């Protein structure tokens, strides 16, 4: 059994060098988000939940099989969301290896779920949208709330 930490595209020969497969984490919903950074797309899209998936890699690019998954409430900032997703990934990996340590078969973890979706990295317009939504609109909302609070206190 192999477990991958990090990013980048893997060669099929490397993937096939593990008798029971190569496993790793995907920080994002398989069906909706591919590409980094982890947790960014959920915050940008205003998603209620963010996912982390422990997958078994296949020799086809972006066509791994989901083995375990977890959902967490999306945080209001990308880095906060990334941190909680990374921590959840560590918990999934711990659960996976603990079960293997108790002689649970790897086959019992495998599902039939496959997805194909291209990787995507934030473009300039995605970053502008993020800054606008999180910081600029957030500033104006806070400013308006402060003004309303002060007005209500003097009424």
Describe the protein.
About 6% of the residues have low confidence. It contains 4 helices and 4 strands, in the order βαβαββαα. With 155 residues, the chain is of the alpha+beta class. It has a 4-stranded mixed β-sheet, with helices on one face.
Tell me the Rg in angstroms: 20 Å
Low-confidence spans: 111-119
Could you tell me the number of beta strands? 4
Structural class by SSE content: alpha+beta
DSSP strand content: 15-25%
* Spatial strand arrangement across the major sheet: 1-2-3-4
Question: What's the shape?
Answer: elongated
- The chain-level mean pLDDT equals 75
In N-to-C order, the SSE pattern is: EHEHEEHH
Largest sheet: 4 strands, mixed
In DSSP terms (H or I, runs of 4 or more residues), the helix count works out at: 4
Offer a concise description of the structure:
The protein has helices at 12-15, 40-44, 78-101, 124-154; strands spanning 2-4, 22-27, 49-56, 65-73. It is built from 4 helices and 4 strands, in the order βαβαββαα.
Name some characteristics of this structure:
single chain; 155 residues; alpha+beta; 4 helices; 4 strands
Structural topology:
Layout (H helix, E strand, L loop, with lengths): L1 E3 L7 H4 L6 E6 L12 H5 L4 E8 L8 E9 L4 H24 L22 H31 L1
């Amino acid at each position: 059994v192999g477990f991958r930490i990090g990013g980048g595209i893997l060669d099929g020969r490397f993937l096939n060098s593990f008798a029971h497969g190569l496993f790793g984490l995907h920080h994002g919903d398989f069906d909706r988000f591919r590409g980094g950074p982890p947790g960014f797309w959920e915050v940008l899209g205003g998603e209620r939940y963010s996912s982390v998936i422990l997958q078994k890699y296949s020799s086809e690019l972006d066509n791994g099989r989901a083995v375990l998954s977890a959902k967490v409430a999306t945080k209001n900032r990308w880095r906060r969301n990334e941190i909680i997703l990374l921590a959840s990934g560590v918990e999934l990996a711990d659960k996976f290896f603990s079960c293997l340590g108790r002689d649970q078969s790897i086959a019992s973890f495998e599902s039939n779920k496959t997805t194909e979706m291209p990787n995507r990295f934030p473009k300039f317009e995605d970053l502008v949208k993020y800054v606008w939504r999180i910081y600029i609109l957030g500033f104006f909302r806070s400013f308006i709330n402060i003004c309303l609070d002060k007005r209500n206190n003097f009424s």
